[in-house]
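Hi P.,

Sorry for the delay on this. The queue was packed all week, but I finally got your sequence through. Input first:
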Amino acid sequence: MRRAAACLALVLTFAFAARAAADAPTERIKTIIVVRHAEAEPGPPGGDPQLGAAGRARALELARALADAPLRAVYSTHYARNRQTAEPLARRAGDRLRIIDDVTAILSALAAEPWGGTVLVVGHSNTVPKLLAGLVGRPIPESEPVRFDAMWIVALSRDGGASALCLHYGEAAP
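Then the structure:
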């Protein structure tokens, strides 16, 4: 049932984006998809754990859910859990990962992305809120935790408008 709801939400999102594109030329819109890395194996604090079984399944689900998205770029940090979350989708899109660890540098790179494009950013529980605030100009509500199954679709317009929609994909995160 949750997957059906996620699929319906994605269809509605892309339908909304298609309507917005019909109302304004696509070169006036930039779409940024932001997710947290998938579930990692337990490890020592400060380590660089690999994805666990649930994380590998979530990474494949992300690639499946966004298979038809016209991605121009996929951004990740250097950490294994982020790269492993992004790699299935980057491979499917025929793209290489762009590795950037600093939030300010990622926001600069996103600002330089061409209008009319769609990109994915794989962040962390502590960087996703900063990325979203930098993109839409306001923090995400504290009642909206940065869970493994959350996917934010951010639409930016040339006139400075920004909107964000939070969807969920894959199995519900605890």
